[in-house]
């Protein structure tokens, strides 16, 4: 495998801050352009490089980044080649990977990072795979110092850090965290990437063939440490429901099952380690009155029909061929810029004190915002936590990066975290 290449083609022995593996994928290319915008090409702020299977495609991408891009190092590696993945780890302190579905292609890189003590972050929303990685490599990661952070895109940074932000403010105002939190998608424009769709379909395919996995996917605590002490019964929103707290109808949120498990793992690793319970749920606000109710019913029916179709091989094949975007496909830059999301979080303490916060993003959630969040997560992991004071293991965005990442996202990624109110008391229902 070729070593890190400098601008003149000679080997460069200096270890990078961040290396993007899967740089020529659709999201990977957006991510690299975001790194150029935020950190430039000279390496003064962040020394970063690109990796993938094809040196030709990597060279083409590098040339498209503009004048001075020849200074960006390139590496060649294959997701199935353990030796080449170890070379990536020797070349950079942090690996950002967009190579999915992770359940099919992700484990060798996780293993290489764990064995070499290299920090890692990804876009995975595949809870069944993440659970396997935690079970297989948690102890080794703690020993080597490798910090592994899954879910560093739209799933699940806004949810995970939104809850972190709300709880921090609740403790400041009320002296206690909230014991119940609801996230509601107030507005959103943008689609899901082909890679996200491929990952989702793979989860459905695995679950259809494995009854044990189907039972695991029903467990909201599946990502929590086995010794976790949160026994609160979690609410799962599967149909149309009227939410009095938001005075609107709600429908299931497609990313809710992933985000919920990440948030509950964060709680188990943090505040929940002392036995504090947390109830958390997510849904989409569809409006008020008859129109809101009908929209909620249609949304819930459509999502359930999609999941059922994805579980049947002939119907899944039709979806892949005629309906869903393929890996590597995505919207135009104009469509990415016109996208956005607006999420609302409402928390209630044990004393019935209430608090609402808002998290917004100014790009398409599946592509533009996701790439920006992943870029900042990798930079935060490399630059802000360089001393490894947090220790190795499998972390969540909130438990490892927390306020440092919130600050980066607000300065560099178009996200906002805002307190809406926190003065009233909830009426028990």
Summary of the model, kept short:
With 429 residues, the protein is an alpha/beta fold. It has helices at residues 26-39, 55-64, 82-91, 102-105, 107-116, 127-144, 157-174, 194-209, 211-217, 256-269, 289-310, 313-323, 333-338, 368-384, 397-400, 402-412, and strands at residues 18-21, 48-52, 74-76, 94-97, 119-122, 147-149, 178-189, 241-243, 248-251, 279-287, 340-349, 354-361, 393-395, 415-421. The radius of gyration is 21 Å and the shape is globular.
Features:
alpha/beta; 429 residues; 7-stranded mixed β-sheet; 14 strands; 7-stranded parallel β-sheet; disordered N terminus; 45% helix; 16 helices
* SSE string: EHEHEHEHHEHEHEHHEEHEHHHEEHEHHE
In spatial order, strands of the major sheet run: 3-2-1-4-5-6-13
Which residue ranges are poorly predicted, with pLDDT under 50 across at least 5 consecutive positions?
A: 1-12
Alpha-beta content class: alpha/beta
* Outline: globular
Number of strands: 14
How would you characterize the largest beta sheet?
Answer: 7 strands, parallel
């Amino acid at each position: 495998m070729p070593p890190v290449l400098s601008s003149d083609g000679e080997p460069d022995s200096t270890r990078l801050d961040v290396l993007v593996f899967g740089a020529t994928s659709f999201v990977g290319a957006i991510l690299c352009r975001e790194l150029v915008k935020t950190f430039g090409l000279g390496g003064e702020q962040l020394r970063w490089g690109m990796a993938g299977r094809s040196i030709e495609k990597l060279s083409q991408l590098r040339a498209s980044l503009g004048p001075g891009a020849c200074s960006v190092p390139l590496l060649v590696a294959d997701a199935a080649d353990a030796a080449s993945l170890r070379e990536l780890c020797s070349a950079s302190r942090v690996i950002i990977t967009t190579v999915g579905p992770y359940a099919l292609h992700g484990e060798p890189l996780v293993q290489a990072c764990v064995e070499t003590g290299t920090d890692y972050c990804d876009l995975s929303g595949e809870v069944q795979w993440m659970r396997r990685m935690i079970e297989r490599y948690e102890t080794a990661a703690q020993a080597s110092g490798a910090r592994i952070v899954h879910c560093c895109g739209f799933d699940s940074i806004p949810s995970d850090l939104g809850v972190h932000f709300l709880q921090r403010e609740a403790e400041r105002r009320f002296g206690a965290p909230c014991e119940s939190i609801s996230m509601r998608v107030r507005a959103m424009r943008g689609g899901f990437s082909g890679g996200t769709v491929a990952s989702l379909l793979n989860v459905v395919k695995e679950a259809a063939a494995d009854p044990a996995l189907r039972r695991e996917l029903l467990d909201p605590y599946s990502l929590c440490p086995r010794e976790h002490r949160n026994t609160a019964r979690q609410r799962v929103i599967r149909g149309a429901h009227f939410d009095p707290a938001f005075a609107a109808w709600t429908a299931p949120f497609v990313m809710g099952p992933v985000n919920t498990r990440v948030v509950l793992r964060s709680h188990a690793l943090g505040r929940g380690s002392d036995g504090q319970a947390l109830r958390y749920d997510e849904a989409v606000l569809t409006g008020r009155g008859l129109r809101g109710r009908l929209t909620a019913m249609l949304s819930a029916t459509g999502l359930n029909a999609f999941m059922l179709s994805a579980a049947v091989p002939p119907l899944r094949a039709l979806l892949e061929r005629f309906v869903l975007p393929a890996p590597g496909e995505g919207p135009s830059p104009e469509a990415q810029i016109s996208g956005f999301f607006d999420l609302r979080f409402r928390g209630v303490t044990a004393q019935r004190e209430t608090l609402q916060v808002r998290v917004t993003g100014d790009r398409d959630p599946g592509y533009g915002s996701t790439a920006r969040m992943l870029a900042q997560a990798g930079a935060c992991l490399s630059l802000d936590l360089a001393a490894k004071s947090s220790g190795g293991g499998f972390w969540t965005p909130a438990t490892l990066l927390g306020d440092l990442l919130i600050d980066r996202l607000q300065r560099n990624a178009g996200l906002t975290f805002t307190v809406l109110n926190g003065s009233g008391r909830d009426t028990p229902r």
